[in-house]
Design goal:
Helix content is about 25%, strand content about 25%. The protein is α/β, with parallel strands linked by helices. A hairpin with a 7-residue loop joins strand 2 and strand 3. It is elongated and about 75 Å long.
Length: about 425
């Protein structure tokens, strides 16, 4: 075990621009760059953390990696950071990144940074670490854990996490300062955890702190993918909120979109019927569906959620059919939404492009995007043919083309809200 003081570390190697804010560069060791938390994600989490009434004490991250998330928490809360990292080179990188953020916030000589330390060692050796950095019982305000896991595994089991949740909880429980709601813990977990594995995580937490509040948080940067999955526990769990979905702004500093579920919700999933003109089709953010919050969100968006019919389309394009427009058609959770103006009984292939384009022209369409599963080699040829034939035409409306589940029917949907004459 080795104690490192951030301000005493000499920069080495070339820092790498952050993926979400190019003007900011961080240090990484060996293969740490692909594992690093983007600054936009780190700052969003830190902002959430400032909304809670935390007890006095330090922010402890016992598997801090490159220290980017730890730096965000410490700088936002103005609390000393204690980072622990088994890999010494990454521990040094954590020091350098703490320095980078302290300089960014003009707080290099402020108390939180001067009292921050990084330990190169085993994050489960709590007593040795506490002795080295001067931690006392009940002196950790927030415990943060982002356990290492295999990079190329399709699913991540709890036994693949290092250090394990049990070993970390056993080691650090005496040092956590508890509020009336229990200790304050943020677990940064694999977004690939299944529902059963999430229940296993909750069971482990319950075995240490029975009845403690828990808020699951899914975070997406777009593209229909869940980028981060967290469990906020005890003093940092939002009361009566079991699930939260955060769609990050496309640009750094923009407004994020947050949806929370305040109670358990069981939504029905009626199957899709025959293709129909004038019904509405909406393609949803797949990450929202994966979070399990989509049914509750639809209740807010539709006058009658019972009208929703689910199409079992590609997981990348979860699609619903419904009887009227969404209340917020431009919502970030919506990939595309529109009304069916034509149903074409033809396969989507090159031989039928002329017929498909003719239908588009008949419906006053100037541009149309394919939004259904097509072979990767074929898709650009089909889309290119549509674009060329519709270019410079006098149509006024934009549309998307999708395929009805279970048949060859293609649905030509005029998009909303670009069209005022729907």
């Amino acid at each position: 075990m080795e104690l490192l003081v951030p301000s005493e570390q000499t920069p080495s190697g070339q820092p790498v621009p952050d993926s979400s804010l190019k003007e900011l560069s961080f240090h990484h060791a060996s293969d740490g760059k692909p594992l690093a938390t983007p600054w936009q994600v780190a700052e969003t989490r830190a902002q959430f953390l400032t909304e809670f009434d935390l007890p006095s004490g330090v922010v402890l991250d016992c598997a801090c990696g490159s220290g980017i998330q730890l730096a965000a928490y410490a700088s936002r809360l103005k609390r000393p950071a204690i980072g622990v990292e088994l890999n010494r080179k990454r521990a040094v990188a954590s020091c350098l990144n703490l320095n980078t953020i302290a300089h960014r916030h003009s707080s290099f000589n402020q108390g939180w940074h001067r009292r921050s330390l990084v330990v190169a060692g085993d994050g489960t050796k709590s007593d040795s670490i506490a002795s080295a950095v001067g931690l006392e019982v009940n002196s950790v305000a927030v415990l943060v854990l982002d356990p290492a896991r295999p990079r190329n595994s399709r699913t991540h089991g709890l036994d693949e996490m290092q250090p394990s949740l049990v070993s970390v909880f056993q080691a650090w429980k005496p040092y956590l300062s508890e509020t009336n709601h229990g200790p304050s813990i943020v677990l940064d977990l694999s977004p690939r955890l299944t529902e059963n594995l999430r229940e296993d995580v909750e069971s482990i937490v319950e075995s240490f702190w029975p009845g403690v509040d828990k808020t699951w948080t899914w975070m997406s940067r777009g593209g229909g993918r869940v980028d981060r999955l967290e469990l906020w526990i005890g003093g940092v769990a939002t009361p009566n909120v079991t699930k939260r979905f955060v769609r990050l702004s496309p640009s750094f500093g923009g407004e994020n979109t947050v949806f929370e579920q305040n109670q358990s919700f069981e939504g029905s999933r009626p199957s899709l019927q025959s293709a129909r003109r004038n019904e509405w089709v909406t393609i949803l953010d797949a990450a929202l569906v994966e979070s399990g919050l989509v049914d509750a969100w639809l209740v807010e968006q539709l006058s009658s959620a019972a009208d929703v019919r689910w199409a079992e389309s590609s997981p990348r394009r979860p699609r619903i059919h419904h009887n009227g427009p969404l209340k917020d058609h431009s919502h970030p959770f919506v990939v595309a939404s529109g009304r069916v103006v034509d149903v074409l009984d033809v396969p989507l292939n090159e031989a039928n492009m002329d017929a498909i384009v003719s239908a588009a022209l008949s419906n006053d369409i100037s541009a149309m995007t394919i939004r259904c599963g097509v072979d990767a080699d074929l898709q650009p040829r089909l889309q290119g043919s549509i674009d060329r034939q519709l270019r410079n035409r006098q149509g006024r409306r934009k549309a998307f083309l999708t395929k009805h589940t279970g048949s060859n029917h293609l649905l030509l949907c005029v998009q909303y809200p670009e069209n005022s004459n729907l």
